[in-house]
Structure formats: structure tokens, C-alpha cells
Amino acid sequence: MPGLDIIGRLDSDTAVLRARLLTLTRQQATGLKSEQPADLGAQLPRALSLRAEISRRDTYGTLIGQALSRTEATQQALGRLADIARKFGSTVAVKLDANNPDVLPLYASQARQALVEVGQLLNAQQGGEYLFGGSDFSNPPVPDPDGLPTSGMATQIAATIGTLGGGNVATVAAATRAAALDDSAGTTPFSDFVSDATRGGGEPRRSVVSADGTATPVGLFANRNAAATSMGETTGSWARDLLRGLASIAALTPAQAASHDDFKALADTIRNGLQSASNALADEQGALGQTEQQLTDMQTRHSQMHDSLKAQLADIEEVDMAEVLTRMQATKTALEASYNAIGTIGSLSLVNYLR
Predict the structure, then answer these.
(1) Where are the domains of the chain?
(2) Of the candidates 127, 140, 107, which has an alpha carbon nearest to the alpha carbon of residue 270?
(3) Architecture of domain 52-308
(4) Helices (H), strands (E): how many in the chain?
(5) Facing residues of 217 across strands?
(6) Distance between CA 325 and CA 336 in Å, rounded?
(7) Which candidate, 182, 295, 296, 302, places its Cα nearest to that of 247?
(8) Is 129 helix (H, G, I), strand (E, B) or coil?
(9) Mean pLDDT in consecutive groups of 10 residues from the start of the chain, 355 residues
């Protein structure tokens, strides 16, 4: 019958409208064209590629952020170490005077306190990892910072300085340098790991993977320089120079002041060594600062590329919400009209229909 054919066609059209409304409702709720990736059709490979690139950029950004947190903490430790080197190099060491031996015990006491602080600074941590310990994140590079004033290195330096006199200042200076360089157990204040040339003592700097094929060095060491080159009166390491200078001041007593010329020459050696440490620390800070700027710039580029990639992915996967809402309203209107038409036709009796 013609009426039944009309109702059948309306039912079919209504089913299409209901399916369309269901799709639009889901799109309005999720903001996505489809929740099934396969429904993207020819755009699927492009969407998968964009997602992978976004994930890679996110990973680089996270790694750089973690590295910058470590370098910030490292800079704080370097800054305090530099303050100590400057104080004792340009203030205390300058005041070492054989004609004023009574102040030596005070300076020696200050130097012993500074030795402990230097050891603690070299054991600085961030996120539970030691900043100056190389790849040995769990163990301090200076096992006993509180014992530095009585360590094997400090004891050897004190014994050597105790022999000052009779024009032997060059020998004494060489011996204090050798003690600061000695990595043997019982003498070095540094851990077995960082002192072992086959382990921490020979490993490269810790790096962060900051981009494809790019590893940026950010790690520093407690017993050797990273980017800085020590010059002048030096062991070749700003940390060893600082410890040597402080241990030398800590070992001074009025007895050494009896030999005026030797005392003055030793004071000059101590001052020059601390100045070398101060200069190298400044260079280390500057180099690390440049690295921080490079990483910050790279992090910014990753973030900008991430946003661009997200926008491209949105064009593929996400709907235009205004368009969806407009289509939803039009579909609802059409569906209501279809329901009304079916209801009207269904209510007609056979007699009414045949009239």
C-alpha cells in the first residue's frame, strides 16, 4: 500500500537522522570527529606521525626541565664555593702577615670551618642525586665533609707547612700541591668512585638528550674541572685548589711566622692558589650559564613546535564545535519533523487514506 511505503521511507530516513544525531552528540561531548582512529581514513598515518612527534617534543621538554633544575642547584653551590674562594683569596690570605702572628689561630679556625662547608657544598643534591658525583648519584663524592680538617690530605699539608723555614718554601708549596692531587686511599677526601680513573675519574660529563642526536653536557665533578681551565698556581682543579688553600691556612701557626721571607712567599702561594680557584669557578659558572641558556632556548623551541603540531593534529582529529552545534540543531529539527510525519500518517485510517 502507498501509505505503508511512505511510512517505510520515513522510518528509513528517521534512522539515518537518529544515527547522525548520535554521531553529532558524541562529537559535541568529546570534541573529536571520531573516537576510533581507524575512522580517520587516509588521515590516520598523518595523525599517528603527528602524535609521535608531539610525544618526542614533550619528552625533550621534560628532560630539559629536569636538567635545568639540576643546573640551577649546581649554580647555587658554585656561587657559594666562589664566595669562599674570593673571601679567603682576596681577604684572609692578603692579611697573612709574619709581623702579626697573633691573628693566625683565628684565620686557621675560619679555614677549618670553610673546609667543612666546601665538603658539604660538593655533596649538594637535587632530586636525591649528588650534583658533583658523576654517574654515582647515590653516594656522596666527599664521604666525610665534617672530617675534612683532619683528613689525610689536610694532615699531610699541615705536616709539610710545619717544616717551613730555611728557604724551603718551593719544596713546601710543591708538597702541598702533591697532597691535594693525591688520590690514594687515606689521603684523598674524595670517594673511591670519583677518584678511580677507570670509573668516575675517567667518565665523561653527565649529559641531557635535548634534541634528536643532541646531548648537552650539564654534569660537574667534585675533584676535577668540567668546562673551566685552571691557570696560575693550580693543581688543575678548582676544587682541589680551594681545599689546598684552606687546608694551608688552617695549618698556619705563629711558629711559621718566625721565618718572615718564607712565610710571605707561602702566603703569596696560598693567595695565588685561591685566586686560581676563584677564577676557574667563575669560568665554570659562566660556561654552565651558557649551557642553561642553550637548554632554555631549545625548550622554548620544543614548546613552540609542540603547539604547532597540536594545532595540525586538531585539524585532523577535532571538530568545529560551532558547526557541530548548528548541525545538531538542524538534525533535531528534521528528526522531530520526521517523527511528526510518521505519527500523522500512522493515525490515518484506511478509509480516510482512500478518500
Answers:
(1) 1-31+319-355, 52-308
(2) 107
(3) Up-down Bundle (1.20)
(4) 10, 4
(5) 207
(6) 16
(7) 182
(8) strand
(9) 56 63 58 58 78 92 96 97 96 91 95 98 95 94 98 98 96 98 96 95 93 93 97 98 98 93 96 97 97 96 91 68 65 66 60 51
